[in-house]
Design brief:
This protein is an alpha/beta fold. It is 51% helix and 14% strand.
Length: 291
């Protein structure tokens, strides 16, 4: 897909972070957008920023949707088709995600299940709803956001991180399996799995809001440090993702830290969850804020 001009893109989690930056870059090229999120205020701000640079005639529709609820996702699909007067779409970015629910043993099951549902069920329901619309288009591309935690199920040996990692592993495996499925049954539709490293987003604050933890000065400060210390901005991440889509790459690592970690895990998989592995990452300044 060499050009996004005139195409129709679906983006979940479009109210902030990488979702917002994908929307900004796509709309600037004249791509029509259907954006969803649970936060309507964030969506409105994304639309405002997109409209400031989008060519005349670019349609941007906003939809409140909880991606863990299949009925909500199907309603989003139907509303997006109506808003854009179409029976197909060209791009689907299953991007919505939150963190939390780290310990299977000690964290609340409600939090664990919510994180897993947003990060995995959101991708599954989104693909179920929108893949037929990609197949109906002359060309299509499905982009599922996994993580470095889709190939390294850890944040170091002293911190449990099970819900998010389990979901992101599921997204990676599902997306890789779709490569053959689509090649056999819909070869004009491509698929990519995105695996970002430490990206400058507000995922910490957004996760707390979704999990009902509310605003807190210490959490707000930590979220700000997480965003500001990231080696890759959300805008840069969006650029890397869209370059990968243009190139037709099925595997898109986002950030030098993601590339280094991928290399380290492949070189020594049996050591990936040991203290020495984390020490090696620290020596190379990989995920330094998190670890």
């Amino acid at each position: 897909m060499d050009s996004f001009s005139g195409k129709i893109a679906i983006i979940t989690g479009g109210g902030s972070g990488m979702g917002r930056e994908l929307a900004r870059r796509l709309s600037a090229e004249g791509c029509h957008l259907a954006l969803c999120d649970v936060g309507e205020e964030g969506l409105a701000e994304t639309k405002r920023q997109c409209e400031a640079a989008a060519p005349a005639g670019t349609t941007i529709s906003l939809h409140r949707c909880d991606v863990t609820d299949e009925a909500d996702v199907l309603a989003f699909r139907d509303a997006a088709l109506a808003a854009h007067g179409t029976d197909h779409v060209h791009l689907v970015f299953n991007n919505a995600g939150i963190g939390g629910g780290g310990s299977f043993l000690q964290d609340r099951r409600e939090d664990w299940d919510r994180v897993f549902a947003v990060c995995w069920s959101g991708v599954y329901f989104g693909t179920r709803a929108f893949l037929p619309l990609l197949v109906a288009a002359p060309e299509g591309h499905l982009v599922n956001t996994s993580s470095i935690n889709g190939f390294w199920a850890s944040l170091g040996p002293e911190r449990a991180h099970t819900a998010y990692c389990a979901a992101k592993f599921a997204v990676k495996g599902f997306t890789e399996a779709l490569i053959t499925d689509l090649r056999l049954h819909a070869p004009h539709v491509k698929v990519s799995v995105v695996m970002p490293g430490h990206i400058g987003t507000d995922i910490a604050a957004n996760s707390a809001a979704v999990l009902g933890q509310g605003a807190h000065p210490k959490l707000d400060a930590a979220s700000g440090r997480f965003r500001e210390s990231a080696p890759t901005t959300a805008a840069a991440a969006a650029g890397i993702i869209l370059d990968g889509v243009r190139a037709g790459r099925w595997r898109i690592l986002v950030g030098e830290d993601a590339q280094l970690l991928d290399q380290f895990v492949r070189e020594a998989p049996e050591e990936a969850y040991e203290t020495g592995f984390t020490d090696r990452m620290r020596e190379h300044d990989v995920l330094s804020y998190i670890l």
